Amino acid sequence: MDYNDAPLWQGREKHHRAAIDAAVKVGVKHIYYTSLAFANPSKSGVMRAHIRTEKYLNELAEAGKVRVTVLREGLYNESWPLYFGYYFDLKDDMRKEVIVAGDGKISWTAIADMGFATAKILAAPSEEWAGKTVYLSQRKSWSLWDIAGVVSKVKGDEVRLKVVDRKEYEEFYVKEKDMEKASVEWWSSTYDALKDGECEIDDSTLEGVLKEAGRRPKTLEETIGEMMR
């Protein structure tokens, strides 16, 4: 729905608004919205629907119609293959070189850690988190170059990273890998955001919640190792 620069309320936020309006209509008093850990404003197309939804929620909150908490979830540990040149075949991917359109530090965060923190926030008294926007990201960060090193170590064979411009990236995955053009073009903007440092997060919220429960964030190395078995 977001492809080809979808106009307002025609991207994924169309479904977000339908759910929000239904909740407000039946009297829901507090909406917790799971957004994404890019900047606002962001250069990434994947963040567009979240920015539009956050704005709408804040307008409703300012009008006194609902309390709002925005949880910007860190980029999932488990999603690293998407950022790392669609490396979905994992240990069966035989590429010696992975093409991407940019690099930057990312505060990768395990889904289970975000799920735990989200549950704790939902279970807390409503007023404790009302009106807040927080990032659920660990503060340690890794670049795509770092991922190439981890993958190489796990495979016992060097996998190099090649950074090219967006046009070359798009042409490669559309023409050489036969991927959908609109999808690749939409996703390629993510690398502009990475280069700007949008995904290197310094927010202690998630680590604080985990520490209270005697937990530590799961590292990206652990996740890659499990996925590459």
Structural notes for this entry:
The protein is an alpha/beta fold. It has one domain: 3-Layer(aba) Sandwich (Rossmann fold), CATH 3.40.50. Helices cover 45% and strands 11% of the residues. The chain has eleven helices and five strands; from the N terminus they run αβαβαβααβαβααααα. The chain has a three-stranded parallel beta sheet with strand order 1-2-4, sandwiched between helices. Strands 3-5 form a two-stranded parallel sheet. The longest helix is centred in the first third of the chain and has 15 residues, at 48-62. The mean pLDDT is 98.
Topology:
Layout: H1 13-25, E1 30-36, H2 48-62, E2 67-73, H3 80-83, E3 97-100, H4 111-123, H5 126-129, E4 133-136, H6 144-155, E5 160-163, H7 166-176, H8 181-188, H9 190-195, H10 205-212, H11 220-227
Parallel strand pairs: 1-2, 2-4, 3-5
Return Rg in Å.
19 Å
* Strand order of the biggest β-sheet: 1-2-4
The name of the CATH topology is Rossmann fold
H/E element sequence: HEHEHEHHEHEHHHHH
**Helical content (DSSP H or I, runs of 4+):** 40-55%
Shape: globular
Q: Uncertain spans, ≥5 residues at pLDDT below 50?
A: none
Largest sheet: 3 strands, parallel
Secondary structure: number of strands: 5
The end-to-end distance, rounded to whole angstroms, is 34 Å
Tally of individual helices: 11
Percentage of residues in DSSP E strands: 5-15%
Question: How many separate domains?
Answer: 1
Return the structural class: alpha/beta
* Oligomer type: single chain
CATH C-level category: Alpha Beta
CATH homology superfamily name = NAD(P)-binding Rossmann-like Domain
Mean pLDDT, rounded to whole units?
A: 98
